[in-house]
Structure formats: structure tokens, C-alpha cells
Design goal:
By secondary structure, this protein is an alpha+beta fold. Helices cover 24% and strands 36% of the residues. The protein has 2 helices and 4 strands. It has a 4-stranded antiparallel sheet with strand order 2-3-1-4, with helices on one face. The longest helix has 11 residues. The termini are far apart.
Length: 84
């Protein structure tokens, strides 16, 4: 599994509805956060190693009604903090 982050810009007044719909319908979604700034939402998705990122974003994310724009970030390594 690998994580990708998708920043999502929504139509005015639609960000909470979009977030709820995605949480209810996209099983790859791990977390959804509302954000300030240029984008309204930040979603963390876990995809299979051989799953096409572009196809996933175009077919599963961008087709949700109320989404105007997306920006995808592919991640490589996850680092954790050791608190000994």
C-alpha cells in the first residue's frame, strides 16, 4: 500500500457535503481534513502498489459532484517520531 494526498477545491458551500460523500463512498480514503487557503479539503488515500494514481484521481475523486479542482501529492517514505 502507498499513500497519496489529494488537495481538493470545492464549489462554494459544498466542502462538507463533498467530504461526507467521499468518506461514505471511497474505501481508499483514510483521512479527510478541512483546510484553509487555496484548497478546501485534504484527503489521504491508500492505494495498492500497482494501482494507477492518475486513473484513481480522475475516476474516483474528480467525479464527486461539487469538486472544482484537485492537486495530487505522491508520497515515498513515511517517517515516525521515536519518543523514548
Amino acid at each position: 500500500m502507498r499513500a497519496i494526498y489529494v488537495m481538493i477545491k470545492c464549489e462554494m458551500g459544498q466542502s462538507y457535503r463533498v467530504a461526507r460523500e467521499m468518506a461514505d463512498s471511497i474505501v481508499e480514503l483514510s483521512e479527510m481534513h478541512s483546510t484553509s487557503g487555496q484548497y478546501d479539503l485534504l484527503g489521504k488515500f491508500y492505494l495498492e502498489a500497482d494501482q494507477d494514481i492518475g486513473l484513481f484521481v480522475v475516476e474516483r475523486v474528480q467525479t464527486v459532484p461539487g469538486i472544482k479542482d484537485t492537486y495530487t501529492i505522491q508520497t515515498f517514505n513515511a517517517f515516525t517520531v521515536s519518543r523514548d
